[in-house]
Automatic annotation (TrEMBL):
Record field: compositional bias (Acidic residues): 99-112
InterPro entries cross-referenced by the UniProt entry: AcCoA_carboxyl_beta, Acetyl_CoA_COase_Trfase_b_su, ClpP/crotonase-like_dom_sf, COA_CT_N
SUPFAM superfamilies assigned: ClpP/crotonase
Protein name, UniProt field: CoA carboxyltransferase N-terminal domain-containing protein
Annotated stretches, region: Disordered: 67-88, 93-112
Organism whose genome encodes this protein: Cuscuta campestris
Subunit record text: Acetyl-CoA carboxylase is a heterohexamer composed of biotin carboxyl carrier protein, biotin carboxylase and 2 subunits each of ACCase subunit alpha and ACCase plastid-coded subunit beta (accD).
Any Gene Ontology biological process: fatty acid biosynthetic process
Amino acid sequence: MVSLDSSEFDSEAELECYEDNIKEWNEEMCQAFMRKLSKDLKEGQALERTANLIEEPWLPEYIQPEEKVEEWTKPDLDEGEESQDEERWIWELDKGEESQEIEDSEANEEDDDDAPYVERLAFYKKETGLLDAVQTGVGQLNGRPVALGVMDFRFLAGSMGCVVGEKITRLIEYATNNLLPLIILSASGGARVHEGSLSLMQMAKISAALYDYQSNKRLFYISILTSPTTGGVTASFAMLGDIIITEPGTFVAFAGPRVVQQILNETIPEEEQEAEALFEKGFFDLIVPRHLLKNVISELLNLHAL
């Protein structure tokens, strides 16, 4: 909510009247959105489960510098060869795939925890085909240009290191310079401990870029939390969205139950760190099943453009 300076008004009554008008306008916009969404659902427009979120996900060099892709051009491919830019990391949100569950045993059994960090990076690059735990790009959502970042929990538990922080920061800066709406999907175990304080620095760096994007340029950022979203990601950009959306049953926390048990010797009921309980406490704006996300996001972007 925008903070109002009372010195800009001639009297307290004028300020109070202005605040009431803003509140009434917000309520009317919310009601209009819900009516439109309800109408779409009844007409079946929100149930197209096969549509992709992004069209033409070609990544400019500015967004993803380690991929030497010519800016705004489709890479030349031999017949049968697939480009990493073209992979379905775009998250086909309408397919209704279930979010990954956070478990202590989820670490890949082939990966040795005592292996050097460089070797672990090489292993996950080979295992996932990704360069790191986030993919960024630009595309269109129902014809509207958007900037998109998608985290991948398969790569070192989606942890945020220097590469992840730099790519997300550059994505935000690109969206700022080109006045694009921003969507970031989070799935992360938090800051990458292997990189020490450098990984923690990414929290401040990304948050600073978002401040310029949201406060100075007044652009629109939608944060989508998938399961699990924890640690430094939760404590930074994941919770800074103008609109924060999560899925049913999503695990969201700063520290998981096992960590809390070890440090505080207290047990937290599992359901207290799930989306439904946190929604009741005001952590999120919406809980949306994955197959409805595309239409909900599209309506939010349309409302913001009014």
